[in-house]
From TrEMBL:
InterPro entries: PARG_cat_C, PARG_helical, Poly_GlycHdrlase. Its EC number is 3.2.1.143. Residues 31-43 have a biased composition (Low complexity). The active site is at residues 440, 458-459. Substrate binds at residues 443, 457, 498. GO terms for biological process: ATP generation from poly-ADP-D-ribose; carbohydrate metabolic process; nucleotide-sugar metabolic process; regulation of DNA repair. Keywords: Hydrolase, Membrane, Transmembrane, Transmembrane helix. Residues 409-611 form the PARG catalytic Macro domain. It comes from Pygocentrus nattereri (Red-bellied piranha). This is poly(ADP-ribose) glycohydrolase.
Amino acid sequence: NSIVSDNVIIQKKSTNGEKALTSNSPDAKPSKVTTTSTPKAKTNLSLSLNTSANADVEMLSPESPTCKNSLYNNLGESAHSCTVPQASSVRSCSSVESSPSGNRGVVNPEGINEKPEVITMETDDVDKQDSGISSLFPKSKAKEGPVDIQSKQSLKRYTSQVPLLNSDKKWLGTPIEMLRRMPQCGQPLPHLRASDSHKVLIRTDLLKEGEVPVPYPSKFRDAWDDITVKMPCSEKNLFPVENEVFLRLNAVSVLILQDAILSYNTAHAKRWDFTALNVLCTDGLEHSEVQYLFDVILPEMVKLALSAPKICTQPIPLLKQNMNQSLTMSQEQIACLLANAFFCTFPRRNSRKSEYSNYPEINFYRLFEGSSPRKIEKLKTLLCYFRRVTTSKPTGLVTFTRQSLNSFSKWESSATQLTRLHITYEGTIEDQGYGMLQVDFANRMVGGGVTGLGLVQEEIRFLINPELIVSRLFTEALDHNECLIITGTEQYSKYSGYAESYKWKDNHKDETPRDEWQRRCTEIVALDALKYRHFMEQFHPDKITRELNKAYCGFVRHGVNSQYLSAIATGNWGCGAFGGDTRLKALLQIMAAAEAGRDVAYFTFGDAELMRDVHDLHTFLTDRHITVGKDGSRLDCFNLTTTYEYFPYYVIEYYIAVALLLIFSTSSSRTKPRNV
């Protein structure tokens, strides 16, 4: 594949205004992905603009490799009546479960340099006293009455009647075509205008489809304070970037580029290294492509970076903690800011001791360090983006919204019924979830390790949609009651693999339709899950409430009727290196989505068993009309406490108990039908 070819083949747009479904239909078969190491091959840095309809390679689970089961051992008679298949009670922590067809790849977490903590669990002794999460809390001593027995017998009857599941079925639940997507489900947008809570950096009166937005104001307005971004072109910058320094970048030499960047970052001259750039130019690219990089791409990036006073004329506000603030800017303005980030020009952003210590890193100096193959593939992906935006100016807008909630739903009293669920082990959030609210499994510092070694779900999304990276410039670390919503970013690259096996594959032509504000109808929400040192931590009431509130913050849109809200495209949020239990996290997201009035499209990333288990649980709960909140009679039947001080926990305990009964009692029914 070539990074620089100019022959653009644009996908045919569908006549109904929806995104072309060349490879994004639910029935499209994903390509096989493996993580076995391949010989290093030179890739044409010609930044190919070929958009032929190659089959998109499916992204493996961003939260695999960890798939854990938490086992209940104190469930009374109904639990002991179920046969527990010990061999499958806990999945391997180092691989993604193969699909029935056996054509799935395996993720190798050992190849990741930033190794997560290994969490050990007691798994073999199923009957061990107090080995389940119930042991963490006082047990109710209420005597079992007639109602208890009746309820347990009812549950037994239900679990024995679970129908045989077709092991070849690739999805379960509601067909994905029935879930709402943007722009079809959205309500008309008001006229775009700036306000105290919404900063707009372009002339809204001149906004037209297909035309580059005009910056506002017309002349650069300087600011150097604690509420806006400190720009490299500010007169108060102590280390300004001189034009003549950048003009020297025409030389075909990484050393010249290095000297230029260090000339205005003198304090870091002895610590920064540019090994990754050297490896890219010596081993990763052909000689002609290196020449093209230095003769064409980098000089155009220099011009783009130096145009900041003409393109980014208005001070860019910082989206600080506890703010409800939106910022809308043009894709051209974002490209200008990212070009400056590439050349490491943003002042006071290279030290963790500066006033930006609670903000993510924005300058790309870490991307140039070391010789990791990850860095090489990241550079190829980002250079594909810069090739595109310097060849043809983008014409759209992107909105960044920091949403901070001061009050949350009272989970213990919610009478909300669960919404519809589509769950599949095939497909990806960005492809099959187009037009939906797409969850970024985020770090509290949005973007995570995108400019470093990180290369899992969030980092990959920030690479193929590089306009997300600019959020790191102005978004303070997310607090427990906050999320970041990004609307309008464009996908520029195709890729294959995951983590160590990640490869930039080709240019991608994004055909997602635009809304009235000229934003791509791609809405991404950054949600940071808690990281657990010990597996059982996540079942504590406070932890459960926090995750419910975090997901709800990302999903809810106050003042918008649910009929205008798209479904949520998500997956194993907060699992993997963060130590989350996949079934618990799935249930939490389903509950939060229901409270926010949204359906869910859940992607298990190759885990067919997880797909079946979550579907079984959702079916049982919806068939019984069990709500998100308290149902005292049902809870009392299961001998749970009548004190609802920590009610969300007991809801989860009840749900998981039911799920495990379903899992254990139906393990044999998947191979042979039972008489109903």
